[in-house]
Amino acid sequence: MKIVFFDADRAMRDYFKDKNFPDAAVDFVTGPADPSAQGAAEASIISVFVNSKLDAGILSKFPNLKFIAARSTGINHIDAEYAREHNIKITNVNGYGEFAVSEFAMGLLLCLLRKIIPAYNDMVAGDIEMGKYIGRDIHGKTIGVFGTGTIGSRFARLAHAFGANVIAHDRGGNPEIADIVEFVDLETLYKKSDIIALNIPANAANYHIINAAAIAKMKPGVVLLNVARGELIDSLALFEALVAGHVGGVAQDVLELESAMNLAAGVDSLSRDQMEIVMYNERMLRMDNVIFTPHTAFNSAEANMRILEMTYRNILDFLKRADA
């Protein structure tokens, strides 16, 4: 049996070099999933990060594939329907980023509200103008947390610690934070929140859940914070709301078509509609009340180690089941 790790950096190679995978050969590929990489097409098991887009066309070129170990919580980069139809099992890693992602989200929010980035840039340039850095407190604001899973609930606790009034929407609720959060319906969350933090998965039901109609229900000047998935927000609607001033600020670690924002990736394969999304993202990136970062909220040393540990266990569990 062959295992191939894609998106493999030095830390991953160092971690797995001494790990035992019974009766399996292991290869590492630096780039995203590519069946044309040397020997990769023979793999029965592959492990990927979100940079690897495993659509049906790519998956069909792994004829021996039985198992995908995703090194992420979300698996919207994998064609799960194709996998089901071809009896390819998928696992993900849950809970690894509870602290890393929630803390990063709070950092993004602080940078946006307190204008930390322009203050730093002006300090470096030696051109300081205090009036430009007047920001807003988190204390006393109503923060709406949309989704209270592991990361959303941790973020809610951080917001509460800052003295915010925290409300939340989650279909299943979360009794673990009921003492600090008021659960409300989605319409109420939109209406009452000064800041809305998205912590829900990307799926067909949630695609563009933040669209023009949703934004129209929000407070004028609302701040949107997204460390979940870029597909949750309609980029055109967000751009227009920023220009109109209805949305007062945006901080996102995730974007629609975020891989296309990396110029090295090229844009030749994008459709006209996709090119339009990239254009709106680039225009928003130049706005003073917008902060985008390159999907790095997960990226702490501690979280990366948990990802590798969980991935190793997931692969071992599959190998044991396969031998049973």
Please specify the SSE layout and strand pairing.
Layout: E1 2-5, H1 10-16, E2 25-28, E3 45-48, H2 56-59, E4 67-70, H3 80-85, E5 89-91, H4 98-114, H5 116-125, E6 142-146, H6 150-161, E7 165-169, E8 182-183, H7 186-192, E9 195-198, H8 212-216, E10 222-226, H9 235-244, E11 247-252, H10 272-285, E12 290-292, H11 301-323
Parallel strand pairs: 1-2, 1-3, 3-4, 4-5, 6-7, 6-9, 7-8, 9-10, 10-11, 11-12
Description:
The chain is α/β, with parallel strands linked by helices and 324 residues long. It folds into two domains: 2-96 and 301-323, NAD(P)-binding Rossmann-like Domain (Rossmann fold, 3-Layer(aba) Sandwich); 98-292, NAD(P)-binding Rossmann-like Domain (Rossmann fold, 3-Layer(aba) Sandwich), CATH 3.40.50. The chain has eleven helices and twelve strands. It has helices at residues 10-16, 56-59, 80-85, 98-114, 116-125, 150-161, 186-192, 212-216, 235-244, 272-285, 301-323; strands spanning 2-5, 25-28, 45-48, 67-70, 89-91, 142-146, 165-169, 182-183, 195-198, 222-226, 247-252, 290-292. Strands 8-7-6-9-10-11-12 form a seven-stranded parallel β-sheet, sandwiched between helices. The protein has a five-stranded parallel β-sheet with strand order 2-1-3-4-5. The two termini are 15 Å apart.
